[in-house]
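In response to reviewer comment 3 from the previous cycle, which asked for concrete evidence that the modeling workflow produces usable outputs, we include below a single protein chain processed end to end. The sequence was submitted unchanged, and the resulting structure tokens are shown without manual editing.
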Amino acid sequence: MGEKTYSTTWMWQSNSGGTHGVSLDTGDMTLTWFDDAAGCGCAESAGDQSIAQFREKGGLFSLPDDIRAELQETLAHYENQAENEPQHQTA
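The workflow returned the following structure tokens.
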């Protein structure tokens, strides 16, 4: 069996009937939130958020429990990956 893959983009129906979305930039570990987006890449961003801010204050939008759990698992994976990468020293 291959290595598990992790989603970095999620979409869900908002309480008002629209669509919310969030995308994780694994390079700089930030979340970009989208409001009423038919597709996260096509809409204007509702705001960026650091992972530390997300952990402290929660998301910019309310997340369904299943998406919150998957997002938390993905964050843990990429944070662990970053911690275990060899550090490059400069002379």
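The chain has a mean pLDDT of 84. We consider this sufficient to address the reviewer's concern, and the full set will be provided in the supplementary archive.
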